[in-house]
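To the wet lab folks,

You asked to see what we're planning to order before we commit. Fair enough. Below is the target structure as C-alpha coordinates, and below that is the sequence we designed to fit it. If anything looks off to you, flag it before the synthesis order goes out.
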Protein backbone atom coordinates (compact mmCIF):
# COMPACT_ATOMS: atom_id res chain seq x y z
CA UNK A 1 0.00 0.00 0.00
CA UNK A 2 1.10 3.54 -0.68
CA UNK A 3 0.19 6.90 0.84
CA UNK A 4 -0.28 10.05 -1.21
CA UNK A 5 0.74 13.28 0.51
CA UNK A 6 -0.96 15.89 -1.70
CA UNK A 7 1.44 18.42 -3.19
CA UNK A 8 4.52 16.46 -2.14
CA UNK A 9 4.47 12.87 -3.38
CA UNK A 10 3.70 9.25 -2.67
CA UNK A 11 5.32 6.90 -0.20
CA UNK A 12 4.98 3.20 -0.98
CA UNK A 13 6.50 -0.17 -0.22
CA UNK A 14 7.44 -2.14 -3.31
CA UNK A 15 8.70 -5.69 -3.70
CA UNK A 16 11.96 -6.06 -5.58
CA UNK A 17 13.57 -9.27 -6.79
CA UNK A 18 17.33 -9.56 -6.55
CA UNK A 19 19.20 -12.42 -8.17
CA UNK A 20 22.48 -13.42 -6.57
CA UNK A 21 24.79 -16.21 -7.62
CA UNK A 22 23.39 -18.42 -4.86
CA UNK A 23 19.72 -17.52 -4.49
CA UNK A 24 16.89 -15.14 -5.36
CA UNK A 25 15.82 -12.54 -2.81
CA UNK A 26 12.50 -10.73 -2.84
CA UNK A 27 12.59 -7.79 -0.49
CA UNK A 28 10.12 -5.07 0.41
CA UNK A 29 11.64 -1.64 0.26
CA UNK A 30 10.31 1.88 0.71
CA UNK A 31 10.20 4.30 -2.20
CA UNK A 32 9.16 7.91 -2.59
CA UNK A 33 7.72 9.27 -5.84
CA UNK A 34 7.98 13.04 -5.87
CA UNK A 35 4.89 14.92 -7.06
CA UNK A 36 5.51 18.63 -6.60
CA UNK A 37 4.80 21.64 -8.77
CA UNK A 38 7.62 21.67 -11.34
CA UNK A 39 8.10 25.42 -10.92
CA UNK A 40 9.37 24.65 -7.40
CA UNK A 41 12.03 22.34 -8.79
CA UNK A 42 13.85 24.65 -11.19
CA UNK A 43 17.51 23.63 -11.51
CA UNK A 44 16.93 20.66 -9.17
CA UNK A 45 17.46 17.07 -10.16
CA UNK A 46 15.47 14.30 -8.54
CA UNK A 47 15.46 10.55 -9.06
CA UNK A 48 12.61 9.21 -11.15
CA UNK A 49 10.81 6.59 -9.11
CA UNK A 50 7.90 4.70 -10.57
CA UNK A 51 5.50 2.95 -8.23
CA UNK A 52 4.07 -0.18 -9.88
CA UNK A 53 0.43 0.07 -10.94
CA UNK A 54 -0.64 -2.84 -8.73
CA UNK A 55 0.27 -0.93 -5.54
CA UNK A 56 -2.85 0.51 -3.88
CA UNK A 57 -2.39 4.23 -3.19
CA UNK A 58 -4.45 5.75 -0.39
CA UNK A 59 -4.78 9.44 0.50
CA UNK A 60 -3.11 10.63 3.68
CA UNK A 61 -5.41 9.77 6.59
CA UNK A 62 -5.78 13.03 8.50
CA UNK A 63 -8.20 11.46 10.97
CA UNK A 64 -5.63 8.80 11.94
CA UNK A 65 -2.93 11.46 12.25
CA UNK A 66 -5.22 13.51 14.48
CA UNK A 67 -5.62 10.52 16.79
CA UNK A 68 -1.85 10.30 17.28
CA UNK A 69 -1.52 13.90 18.45
CA UNK A 70 -4.97 14.81 19.84
CA UNK A 71 -5.57 17.63 17.35
CA UNK A 72 -8.72 17.96 15.21
CA UNK A 73 -8.40 16.41 11.71
CA UNK A 74 -9.06 19.77 10.00
CA UNK A 75 -6.22 21.37 11.94
CA UNK A 76 -3.87 18.49 11.07
CA UNK A 77 -4.80 18.77 7.38
CA UNK A 78 -4.17 22.52 7.45
CA UNK A 79 -0.78 22.04 9.12
CA UNK A 80 0.28 19.44 6.57
CA UNK A 81 -0.84 21.61 3.64
CA UNK A 82 0.88 24.74 5.02
CA UNK A 83 4.09 22.83 5.74
CA UNK A 84 4.24 21.47 2.18
CA UNK A 85 3.48 24.92 0.79
CA UNK A 86 6.27 26.45 2.88
CA UNK A 87 8.69 23.74 1.75
CA UNK A 88 7.84 24.35 -1.92
CA UNK A 89 8.35 28.11 -1.46
CA UNK A 90 11.75 27.46 0.12
CA UNK A 91 12.77 25.24 -2.80
CA UNK A 92 11.58 27.90 -5.26
CA UNK A 93 13.73 30.48 -3.42
CA UNK A 94 16.75 28.15 -3.79
CA UNK A 95 16.80 27.35 -0.10
CA UNK A 96 17.43 23.67 0.51
CA UNK A 97 16.09 22.72 3.92
CA UNK A 98 15.76 19.10 4.94
CA UNK A 99 12.20 17.81 5.40
CA UNK A 100 12.16 15.16 8.14
CA UNK A 101 9.48 12.48 8.36
CA UNK A 102 9.51 10.91 11.81
CA UNK A 103 10.38 7.19 11.73
CA UNK A 104 10.58 7.27 7.91
CA UNK A 105 13.44 9.39 6.60
CA UNK A 106 14.58 12.76 5.33
CA UNK A 107 13.82 14.54 2.07
CA UNK A 108 16.90 16.63 1.43
CA UNK A 109 18.67 18.52 -1.31
CA UNK A 110 22.42 18.20 -1.70
CA UNK A 111 24.31 19.54 -4.73
CA UNK A 112 20.95 20.38 -6.37
CA UNK A 113 19.77 16.76 -6.09
CA UNK A 114 16.50 16.34 -4.18
CA UNK A 115 16.17 12.83 -2.79
CA UNK A 116 14.51 10.81 -0.05
CA UNK A 117 16.87 9.04 2.35
CA UNK A 118 15.05 6.40 4.38
CA UNK A 119 16.10 5.63 7.95
CA UNK A 120 17.66 2.18 8.41
CA UNK A 121 15.08 1.45 11.10
CA UNK A 122 12.26 2.13 8.60
CA UNK A 123 13.76 -0.28 6.07
CA UNK A 124 14.44 -2.92 8.72
CA UNK A 125 10.87 -2.60 10.00
CA UNK A 126 9.51 -3.36 6.53
CA UNK A 127 11.81 -6.28 5.73
CA UNK A 128 12.56 -8.62 8.59
CA UNK A 129 13.78 -11.60 6.55
CA UNK A 130 16.40 -10.11 4.21
CA UNK A 131 17.08 -6.82 5.99
CA UNK A 132 20.65 -6.40 4.74
CA UNK A 133 19.66 -6.87 1.12
CA UNK A 134 16.89 -4.28 1.48
CA UNK A 135 19.27 -1.85 3.22
CA UNK A 136 21.80 -2.19 0.41
CA UNK A 137 19.16 -1.59 -2.26
CA UNK A 138 17.67 1.44 -0.61
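Sequence we intend to order:
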Amino acid sequence: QGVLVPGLGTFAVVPEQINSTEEVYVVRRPVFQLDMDMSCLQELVFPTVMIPGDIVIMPLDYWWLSQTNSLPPDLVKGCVEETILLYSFQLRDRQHPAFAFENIGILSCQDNVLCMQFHCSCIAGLESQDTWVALLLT
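Structural context that might help your review: Residues 2-137 form one domain. The mean pLDDT is 85.

Thanks,
Computational group
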